[in-house]
Specification:
mainly alpha
């Protein structure tokens, strides 16, 4: 009787699968780092407002913490140094 080699059990197929798993892990780590940076920046915005004695309503806190856009968070962080009210973080600049 002849042994049948199924492709998915072939060493080459196993190597390809392992390479795919490794790429997935790398992508997951990068996404995790990016999320961590965004979370830290959001917390910096809120910390700055608190340090300045500015009340941060729940709606503002939720919006800042839910943002994952580093550019947007950067703008808010810069604004957090000079606004008089937490809602001014989101004001459109004309």
């Amino acid at each position: 009787m002849t042994a049948i080699q199924y492709f998915w059990r072939h060493p080459l197929a196993e190597q390809v699968r392992e390479e795919g798993r490794e790429e997935g892990r790398e992508e997951g780590r990068e996404e995790g780092r990016e999320e961590g940076r965004a979370q830290e920046r959001a917390e910096s915005v809120l910390r700055t407002l608190r340090w300045r004695g500015i009340d941060v309503p729940d709606a503002v806190r939720a919006r800042v913490l839910s943002s994952g856009d580093m550019d947007e968070l950067g703008v808010w962080l810069e604004r957090s140094y000079r606004v008089g009210d937490a809602g001014e973080l989101f004001a459109e600049v004309s």
